[in-house]
Structure formats: C-alpha cells, structure tokens
Design brief:
With 208 residues, this protein is α/β, with parallel strands linked by helices. It has 6 helices and 5 strands; from the N terminus they run H-E-H-E-H-E-H-E-H-E-H. Bound molecules: flavin mononucleotide.
C-alpha cells in the first residue's frame, strides 16, 4: 500500500516537474502598455526594442491605444463596464506579465495611463501579476515613483530589477529611431533577464 502511494507521489512529482520545465521553456505572453500620448513616441520605440531583444522568450503585444479608452467612471467600473475596458482588462488578466513603459508628464504619469489604471482599481487583475515598470523621460523621477506606488497599491509583482528609470530618453535614439546608447541596451537586456526570472518564479509559486 505505502509503496504504491510513494510511486504515485513520484509520478505526480515527475509530471509536475516536467510540466514546470515545459512552462519555463514556453514563450511568455507579455502585454506592454505604452504610456505616451505621442504618435512619435520614444517609449513606443523602447518597447519595440524590448520586443526585438526578447523575441526568443516573449510574445509581446504592444498596446498604444490608451487615448481611445473612455474617461474613468466609477459607476461603470463594476456593472455596465465599457467594452474597451472589458477588453483592456482581459488583456491584462490573460498575460503572463505586463510591461508599462511611460514618460513623465508634469511630474506625474500621463493622464491616459492614470485613467487606464483607475479602471483597474475595482479588480484584482494586477494582484501578483509579474510587472516590468519603465519610466523613460527627460527626467522622470517623480513619475517613476508614482508608477511604483500605484502598482504597489494594486499588488503588482515587481522588483528593483524589473523597474527601470531611463533619463534623457530622446537622445538615446537616432533620427531613424535606432537605439544608439549601448548602456540603455545593456539595461534593457538585464531588465528582460530579471523579468523572465520573475515570471518563471511566479509559475513555480502558482504550482506549489
Ligand atoms: C505634456 C508634457 C509634459 C511633460 N512633462 C515632463 C516632466 O514633468 N518630466 C519629464 O521628465 N519630461 C516631461 N516631458 C517631456 C517628455 O519626457 C519627453 O517628451 C519624452 O520624450 C516623452 O516620451 P515619448 O517620446 O514616449 O512621448 C513632458 C512632455 C509633455 C508632452
């Protein structure tokens, strides 16, 4: 009897381990939100660069439609939720990880991004969700602090290594939109490594 129970335990443990290994090999679905309101956005270019550098690890969906989301309305946040918000929330919920890449506007975060996050407050979609938080701006310190505070409030899972402040962002790209700053490229590579680890740790935790 006890031998067969032990065998079963081994089989289950082996299956779980194999499943976990498979999970870690699979490409992760990342939903990347661009906070900028500009069409020629350096943050958009940065996310495109991340997509390029991480193409072996991530299937990255770039979301740059914050300006099309309706203005936050608490009366519609739980019932009668607008379809654009339902879709936006589903994208977050189904992703393995979220990247927010944003400039600072007037010592704060852009209103479009704040608006989108307000629509998420009544939900738990960010709880324990692996997140990468990037502020890429002229200066960006205050906006970055605010982004971290808000994401902590919604219980997102991010670390110092998946949180990045890139200052002087406009000068990091050439006229053709090519990233010319090797230090920033290194930072992005370290960010991708740390973010991948965070997602894998999250998978391990959710199975144990
Ligand atoms: C309305 C507005 C307000 C801004 N305020 C700030 C600011 O407070 N701090 C800062 O570092 N940059 C500020 N900037 C400059 C942006 O950091 C810079 O334009 C950056 O490149 C924007 O990112 P993007 O190219 O992705 O749009 C502001 C830009 C705009 C359009």
């Amino acid at each position: 009897m006890s031998i067969s129970i032990r065998c079963c335990t081994f089989v289950i443990q082996g299956t779980c381990k194999a499943y976990l290994q498979q999970l870690m090999r699979d490409k992760k679905n990342i939903f990347a939100i661009v906070g900028s309101a500009s069409s020629n956005s350096a943050n958009q270019k940065l996310v495109e660069k991340i997509a390029d550098l991480s193409s072996k690890n991530f299937n990255l969906t770039i979301y740059n439609r914050l300006k099309f989301l309706p203005h936050f309305d608490p009366d519609l946040s739980i019932g009668n939720v607008p379809k654009e918000i339902v879709e936006f929330r589903q994208n977050i919920e189904s992703a393995d990880g979220i990247i927010i890449c944003t400039p600072e506007y007037v010592f704060s975060m852009p209103s479009g991004l704040k608006n989108a996050l307000e629509w998420c407050i009544a939900t738990t979609i960010f709880s324990n969700k692996p997140c990468g938080l990037i502020t890429a701006s002229a200066s960006g310190e205050k906006g970055h602090e605010m982004l971290q505070l808000i994401m902590k409030t919604v219980m997102a899972n991010y670390t110092d290594k998946t949180s990045l402040l890139i200052q002087g962002i406009k000068g990091k790209f050439d006229r053709e939109g090519k990233l010319i700053d090797t230090e920033v490229k290194n930072k992005l590579e370290n960010f991708i490594d740390a973010f991948t680890k965070l997602i894998n740790e999250n998978d391990t935790k959710s199975l144990s």
